[in-house]
Structure formats: structure tokens, C-alpha cells
Amino acid sequence: MCSFLVAETIQYYKSHGSDVYMLSLDASKAFDRVKYTKLFKLLIERSICPLVIRFLMNVYIFSTASVKWNNCESETFSINNGVKQGAIISAPLFAIYIDPLLSKLKVAREGCHIGNICTNAFAYADDIVLLSPSCTALRNLIGICETYANEYEIKFNPDKCTLLIFSDLINVNNLVNIMLCGNRIKNVINEKHLGHYFSSTYNQTFNLINIENVIRDMKVRTNTIVTQFRPISWKSKTILFNSQCLSLYGCQLWRLDDPKIDELCTTWKVCCRRLLNLSQRTRSRFIHHIMDTPPILDIIMYRMLNFFITGLASEDTLISNIFKNTLLASTSYMRVNINKIIAHFNIDYHDIFSLNKNVLKKTLYNMKGEKDWQCNLIEELLSMRDGTVTTDLEDLEMNDIRFMLEQVSTDFLNR
């Protein structure tokens, strides 16, 4: 969600011909620097239940630790700051601790906006991103961050902070000099944020690198299954492939009009054929039945639709308003995706906007295929096997027919 909001803000400004400066802040040992006095004061100001605050105070204030090395163990010592990394409650506590910074950045009204919605800063735990259309506004935002860091004893590491500039100007990186804590922030052309790659060298900002990584991983993992799991049954291979090779993290942010999507679909078909040793002449429309999974494009579209409906229904007004603006804005790449999904699954545009949950059920039904189509397919395969008809399926290998017939028949009987 955080990466989507960042990408949508960048896309909004780029579509209006404006530059965007994306600054990724790195807080050194942020979780370990949380001061208990500041944290509990913020909890009290938020009217958290006193019993909960008392419980957290007992957990953190009276915490002790010791260092064990080989057979030696140090004396116990008290822990005076920091939230426990890995604990379930640590991320929400740090979010409360960092919230004053985000509030100050929002009140400043500097940086990027989508309509009347302030989108100048986004944070997920200790990953903070500042967005600004100008260097002046970005420097003002940095000044607010430095003031907060001094007050709450958070230390930003300028050496690990990066600046990504989305601009049509040539050599713009050599013209911009942004300072943090007296040190110059390095300019980069690619940046990874929460697992998503952003790039200033491509118009689509992040699509190219992300999809190329997915294609490469799919090929590598498919080759591993083929070479190391050769003796197992084809059913087990499909289960392994569907669970291990379809690494589609972040596909909700891709552009469906990107040519790399077609390359990904082609790679998926090639990997499926190689996995089950199918003939290269196997019809593409049969592969997803053999693999017992929807086509990869349908999976991507379904995840996009589910993500978009979740965003529209969000209780956070900031998130829901951005999604509504996205649906109405003609320049939004997500609007392009939604239009393609509507046409592909034959669903109603107004059902999406009204948060009709039946949209997802209808989409799933379309992905699994109509029952009548499956009946016709079984009939066609049986007729071809018996030699009673001649169809465009006659160039299939018998193994392909066996797989398809078994799979489709099983699906039909389970309905």
C-alpha cells in the first residue's frame, strides 16, 4: 500500500509535466533509539487504555538482558530504551513514535499533493519517503525531519539516504545538491523501496526492473524443479511450481499495458511446458487446466482488483480518497489497469466503485471457466481421441491429451 501511494504520487506529477524528488531516509537503529518517556507520553496523549499503558511499562521499563559468549555470561543489565525487534507490538509502537514527524510534515503543506490531499511523506515502520516537486520544498521537509530527530533522539544516516529524481532534464543529478545533517545525499537512478524498484530512467518508474526480476526467478526456480525433482509426479510438480515459481509480490503496482507483461505470460507458458515435458505445439488455452491454476494474467488482474477494492474500502480517509481520485483520473496508470480488468472479466464499473463484494466472486468464477465450455472441451477431446472428428487439436501429443482430459474431467466432476 505504501509503495502504491508513492508510485501514484510520482505518476500524478509526471503526467502533469512536473519533476518529482523522492528522498528515502535511513534511520540508524531506529527501533533501538525509542525513548520510553517520549513513547509513553504519546500513548497517554492518544488516550490509550491506562491498563494497556501500565502493561507496556512493566514489559519495557523492567526489562533486563545479559550477553552470553561461549561459556561466559555477563551480569544482567537494565534496558533503558528501544522496542523489542520482532515482537508483534513493536511495529505499532514505533508507528506511534514516528507519527509526530508525519503530522508535522503534513501540517507544513510543503511537497507533493494530489488535489487537496497531502502526499509529501509516507512511512512504513522505519522506512520514510519524502516527495516534493521542488528542491526548496524538499529542503524545508528535511529541516522538519532534522528538528524531530534532535527532539526524539532519532539519528538519520546521510550515507545510506538516497535521492531519486524523476525529471526529463539531462544530467539533472549533477545539478541538484541536497544536504542532510551537514552531509550531501547521494543521487541514484534506481531505488528499492519495500521490495519495489523505482527507476528514474524509465517512464513507468518501476515496472521494468520488477517484472524482469520475476521472469528471471521463474526461469531459475522452474529449472530447479525440473532437474532436482524429476522422479515426482506431474501433480506434485504443478503444486511446487504454483507455490514456489509464481513470485508475484507487488504485481498490484504493475502496468498491464507494459510489453513486459506479455513477456511474463510467454515465460509462464514456456516454463509450464518444460515442467511437464509438454509438446511445444500444446495449445496455450489448455495449459492452465493442466497446471490446475488460472492463467498468470488472470492471477495478476485478480490481485489488482482485490487490492483496489481494499483500498477504496479503507477506513483511512487519506487512502480511500487517493484511490477514488485514482479511479476518476484519466492520467492514472491504475485507471488504465482497471479498464483492462473490467473488459477482461466482463464486470461492471459501478460495482467496483460501490465496493460490491460480488465482483470478486464473479471474477473468480470467470477465472475457473464456464461449466458448459468444459463440457464442450471434454466432448471435443474424446471425439478427437476416438478419431471420429478432425479438429485443430489433432497436432497435440497424446500425453497432452491425457493430462488435459484428466484435469478437465476432474474439475467437471467436482462442480
From TrEMBL:
A GO biological-process term: DNA biosynthetic process
Domain of life of the native organism: Eukaryota
PROSITE patterns the UniProt entry points to: RT_POL (PS50878)
Protein name per Swiss-Prot or TrEMBL: Reverse transcriptase domain-containing protein
UniProt cross-references to Pfam families, sorted A to Z: RVT_1
All residue ranges annotated as the Reverse transcriptase domain in the record: 1-180
PANTHER family tied to this protein: REVERSE TRANSCRIPTASE DOMAIN-CONTAINING PROTEIN (PTHR47027), REVERSE TRANSCRIPTASE-LIKE PROTEIN WITH RNA-DIRECTED DNA POLYMERASE DOMAIN (PTHR47027:SF20)
InterPro entries: DNA/RNA_pol_sf, RT_dom
Species: Meganyctiphanes norvegica (Northern krill)
Taxon lineage: Eukaryota, Metazoa, Ecdysozoa, Arthropoda, Crustacea
